[in-house]
Amino acid sequence: MKRNxxxxxxxxxxxxxxxxxxxxxxxxGALIRLLGKRSRLLGxxxxxxxxxxxxxxDPGQEKQLWxxxxxxxxxxxxxxxxxxxxxxxVNGLGxxxxxxxxxxxxxxxxxxxxARMDLEGPGDILLSRMWVFMGAAAGVPLQLSGAxxxxxxxELIKGLNQAGGTFFWEKDLVSCRGGQGPDFDRKxxxxxxxxxNLYLLIFLAAMKPGVCRFSGGxxxxxIDLRPVERIVRALGxxxxxxxxxxRGLPVRLESSGRIDASLxxxxxxxxxxxxxxxxxxxxxxxxKAEAFVKQEDAGGLFLDLPRVFxxxxxxxxxFRQQEQGWVITGGRLDMPECPGLPLDPVFCGYLLAMxxxxxxxAGIQGEFPLDLPxxxxxxxxxxxxxxxxxxxxxxxxxxxxxxxxxxxxIDTRGKAWLLPLALAQVxxxxxxxxxxxxxxxxxxxxxxxxxxxxAAYSLSDDRLSxxxxxxxxxxxxxxxxxxxxWWSMALAVMALKRPGLxxxxxxxxxRLWPQFWSLFKGLPDPGRxxxxxxxxxxxxxxxxxxxxx
Length: 549
What we know:
- The N and C termini lie far apart (90 Å).
- This protein has 19 helices and 22 strands.
- Helix 2 (59-75) packs across helix 3, helix 14 (418-429) runs parallel beside helix 16 and helix 16 packs across helix 17.
- The chain is of the alpha+beta class.
């Protein structure tokens, strides 16, 4: 056999590519280190202002810094518009560092016994805020029981109370004494981190003449409020940024109270904006006044309104649907003093998932809202998985029956909460499955998680194929900082099957559902949990309650 003694030809393009990649990696490392140092300095300056009871943002400082950025960007031939967006994102890192609460690592070591849950279920977290808002806007007494007292609800209550609201609470009962309703004129409100709360408060403030200011956390400093500004103009007001060039908070709102009869929604208005606007109009329009909320392609926007119209129907709101939108008519609402709060279908889905993976059962007491789209999705998912789920007036019950052997196909597109829930159960099922997915942060996180777990998969266009589930033979320790609370719950579900999982930011889930980790640690029979038992958050939550009430 003749041996080929010729030297292999060098691939100069590949060598160059590797060199360029290495150089880029080196530069990225230096850039990230500089970003960390800059964030610490900006956070230190913001912390000093916070101690003096001032806004975290110093408009003069930001203006001076941007002038330097602009000059440097021009010298490098970089696009000014893109650099302006990057400038605010980089500043957000500093503010977020200051606001970030100290978290801890949580090793997930649940009981491996089959679950036998029988508990009062969590109330719907979005409907809770809608009822609180409507009670405040209408100025009527309200008692809401069964609410999950999480950070978004506390932040809304705090914002309303800053404007003269009369909310207080005890355990899972939220109460309002009634009165004249919030008055925003000449007030400065800190609205926290949640966009839906911001939309509710801004639209409510715009309904009456006055001037007020809104500030918020780092997330709301980076949000693009231009669609909100266009809606505010239709409500007879205008928003002025207090940081030149910024599209987020802080802003000043000047309102006249003169509302257009027809409100054309901007094409980039989010479902949260639409829900907040319709609720506000129903609560604050003058008697017999009408407002037509419309958008040329209303289908996508108004799909997310079943909760709004559940509330308006129960509160005696006057509304009717037309081809391109909804007509809201003003008038005194007939608000129930003790509105019923149904179960949160997504939270129930994760409780049922723990029963399914552990081969046990779950009984969740409360009204399971069959009129909400998430409920139908949850029931369809567990029917595909082979779990017996029954719904009646007492609640929802699930029991593991058998493992279905045929391949699964689950459409998770457009549902941020569903991909984590479905993926966790598919991996624990140890059989082939196909998930229809959309590109974005959640898919990116899912792929990182699959690689960390050593799971076999393939991705083609919008289809994520899972080939065999979790590797239970080799279970090295896996630490994950989750993208959002749904992924923390998904890891908790997987921990029932696979040891060695650690959540690096469990506090994010605690802020959304304070009782979850107590329920998880209480498996297989957690019973009824009234309060978050975690000592790392209980003191802080008690302090917040005392301050806000």
